[in-house]
Amino acid sequence: xQTRVLLVDDHHIFREGLRSLIEKSDTVLVVGEAxxxxxxxxxxxxxxxxxxIMDLTMPIMNGIDATKxxxxxxxxxxxxxxxxxxxxxxxxxxxxxxxxxxxxxxxxFAELMDAIATVAGGETYxxxxxxxLLVKEFLQCIPEDLTVVYQNLTPxxxxxxxLVADGKSIKEIAFILDISPKTVDNQRQAIMKKxxxxxxxxxxxxxxxxxxxxxxx
Length: 217
Fold this sequence. Notes:
Elements lengths: L2 E6 L3 H11 L5 E7 L2 H11 L3 E4 L8 H11 L4 E6 L4 H10 L3 E4 L4 H12 L7 H14 L6 H4 L3 H11 L4 H8 L3 H15 L4 H10 L8
Parallel strand pairs: 1-2, 1-3, 3-4, 4-5
Helix pairs in contact: 2-3, 3-4, 4-6, 8-10, 8-11, 9-10
């Protein structure tokens, strides 16, 4: 069964070239073309394609807004972005709008065909370069309090924090780690001071949030 595709790009010559390449495949059928986001939204409703190959920077309506409208109105239609934009802002916004694939226009045609098959099948397709942009975005968005446990606490302090959160007493922790109870108590106090937490209950909640201790035993 062929994948029915709608091509969306404001450069007519680019659409023609892409269409001629795609139609050499027996697995993909181009059912329409659009030169802006408004046309894309209209044709997606009329033609009900399996997949929209979407440019981002277009007149009248950009590809991100068009993607949001299409995926909102036609959840069975998948969107694969094909753009010159390599800024992670565009990648993130396109995926938030509902796109399930993002390729750059310098991509080899063979990879485009792989992406079409993957996205049409309901899976996400991101090449290595695009995926690395998302990793950078993710790392920049991690709240500081989620990294304090690894930046500010020593490995031994993290170990003690986990055992405290697991409900172990000072004597039990001392026995497990083969250190004195006084050392355990001193390190627990140091942990509280670093994290600005002042009870075992607060330490436990913090450890759960950090993934150092499960929600239930």
